[in-house]
């Protein structure tokens, strides 16, 4: 009989899916071996369990996905701006409540607004992503303001951005650094 793997707070998102698959297979194996009313009953039970396995996997899948991420780098100690798309695959809205980066001293959510011929940046405390919806961070709109680099950074490198959500989920997004003139 296959051992049941442990899933704890140190289980990373990269191995979460394999742990779920191992749990499903161990449960199926245990139930089949405990069924004593013949091969037909075992086949029926195995079919039911395999049909339910997809539901278990989708329930364990991450709710938040990050895509299209990148950072517009500026030389020296000048602030950089991060852009990305946050997709909420869940049935409930979720709110971005904070962000950090091991590569920068400060990571803040900002929004550029236009009033007539004036553009200004305002700091945003939180941002709600609707159920089954997405929010795109782009130049001239929402962006991550990155200040106080902790190491020498330049185009071609990557940074890590940790996004914290109201449901307790934290998503780590690798963002490639692009040159100053980049717009997407």
Automatic annotation (TrEMBL):
Cited Pfam families: PCuAC
Origin: domain of life: Bacteria
Protein name as it appears in the record: Copper chaperone PCu(A)C
